[in-house]
């Protein structure tokens, strides 16, 4: 994908337009939750599978609204990645997110909007302070720029052997959905 993380002028212009359309878009989003309108009205994160708490009982899924997500306790990771210079990622701990939905499973599958997915053992989230990053240097991650959510490990505190090999496949970006297995 093309990185655009340091120049977000177009994204900001789009946001201003979206704000003025917010009431219309919110209505559209409530009727059609998976449309581009829903994306503009508010970013959501859906967790499903082996969980014990639901916002949608029939679907057995828990959908975090942008407001609820942003109210979670936040952690910061200051690191460079293969794709970004040294900077600050902020988001809740993945283990905290999993606890909020009563997750029971041993394997956690992260789905990207680009159809990428990766399954990570739940033990990683007790071993490492992994966050689901929502911002980079205080700017929300945009869908065309690794957002809305990016699985981020505290790379700066990890040894070379821990971050070599298949490790980087765990850094799933464009995440919108998580399945507990
Ligand atoms: N959403 C999403 N996240 C992703 C990927 C992807 O294709 N889509 N590729 C993964 C893999 S397999 C690796 S090795 C790293 C690096 O991907 P790259 O080699 O395409 O830069 O990002 C990971 N995160
Ligand atoms: Mo990879």
Automatic annotation (TrEMBL):
Signal sequence region: 1-40
Q: Which UniProt keywords apply?
A: Signal
Q: Which InterPro entries match?
A: OxRdtase_Mopterin-bd_dom (IPR000572), OxRdtase_Mopterin-bd_sf (IPR036374)
Instruction: Report if keyword Signal is assigned.
Output: yes
Whether Lipid biosynthesis counts among this entry's keywords is no
Q: State the Pfam families in the record.
A: Oxidored_molyb (PF00174)
Q: What is this protein called?
A: Molybdopterin-dependent oxidoreductase
Top-rank taxon of the source lineage equals Bacteria
Q: From which source organism is this entry?
A: Chromobacterium piscinae
Per the database record, which ranges form the Oxidoreductase molybdopterin-binding domain?
Answer: 77-154
């Amino acid at each position: 994908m093309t990185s655009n993380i340091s120049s977000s002028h177009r994204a900001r212009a789009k946001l201003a337009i979206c704000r003025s359309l917010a009431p219309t878009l919110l209505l559209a989003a409530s009727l059609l939750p998976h449309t581009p309108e829903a994306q503009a009205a508010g970013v959501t994160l859906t967790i499903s599978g082996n969980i014990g708490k639901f916002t949608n009982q029939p679907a057995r899924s828990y959908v975090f609204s942008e407001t609820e997500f942003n109210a979670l306790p936040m952690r910061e990771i200051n690191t460079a990645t293969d794709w970004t210079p040294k900077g600050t990622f902020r988001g809740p701990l993945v283990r905290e997110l999993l606890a909020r939905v009563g997750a029971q499973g041993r394997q956690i599958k992260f789905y990207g909007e680009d159809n990428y997915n990766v399954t990570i053992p739940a033990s990683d989230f007790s071993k490492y302070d992994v966050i689901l990053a929502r911002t980079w240097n205080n700017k929300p991650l945009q869908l065309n720029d690794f957002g809305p959510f990016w699985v981020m490990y505290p790379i700066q505190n990890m040894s070379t052997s821990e971050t070599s090999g298949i490790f980087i496949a765990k850094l799933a970006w464009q995440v919108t959905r998580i399945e507990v297995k």
